Amino acid sequence: MEGDPLILALLALFGLLGGIGITAVGPGGVLPTIGMFLLTGLPPAGVAGTAIATHIATGALGTAAYTRSGQLREPGTRRIALALSAVAVAGAPLGVFLNTLVSGEGFAVLLAAAVAVTGFLVWVRERRAVPDSEDRPVRLRPATAGAVGFAVSVAAGLFGLGGPMLSVPLLVLCGLPLLPALAAAQAQSVIIAAAGTVGYAVHGSIDWTLALVVGLPELAGVMIGWKIARVVPVRKLKYALAATLMALAPYLALHG
């Protein structure tokens, strides 16, 4: 794999599409993990560690973008973001620890399950979706936000995700409008990625060269996705993403 221009280009493409998905629809951060799992010979810790390292910058950029557009200036959204982020400090390191206990085959099955569940959540979210309104309150009970945040951060630490992949569908299912859910998830992803990166770096599990190959296009994708989320109806894109994730799940399990 090392130095193969085609593989590197494909990894960069996974990063770009992942960045677009992160800020446009939420569940995009899994794509770098999938790309590294399928195209490199890295062990589970190397896949997850390298992938999660890319999400520090993308999370920070996404947070800045949603602060600029106003969602993270709204007090209700800020409170939810803080609740999600606080529990991530403990959840992400737990996920890193769990990764060290998983074999390559086990990681493949668990990743396939996570991808399938995410695809299903996106589909359910769209089936139940109601139009967002500026007058719709941004409210979520602290206990609910904490439970969602902890579960998401453990899974993110285990698989090398930033967090929006799971947190956005779950927050929307809990009644949060889409844009505040995307904004709060971006803020949480910075904490998840930072805590997870430290954990994987301690184990020497991060390929920093690959992190740059994937992470730089991912940053560009974050800005593209942010613009898409604000100006383009993305319902069909969400259905396509859900179908793609559910179709990929069996292949990922078999690939392991």
UniProtKB/TrEMBL annotation:
It comes from the Bacteria. Keywords: Cell membrane, Membrane, Transmembrane, Transmembrane helix. It is a multi-pass membrane protein. The keyword Acetylation does not apply. It is found in: Cell membrane; Membrane. The chain crosses the membrane at residues 45-67, 79-101, 107-124, 145-166, 178-201, 238-254. Pfam families: TauE (PF01925). Belongs to the 4-toluene sulfonate uptake permease (TSUP) (TC 2.A.102) family. This is Probable membrane transporter protein. It comes from Streptomyces daqingensis.
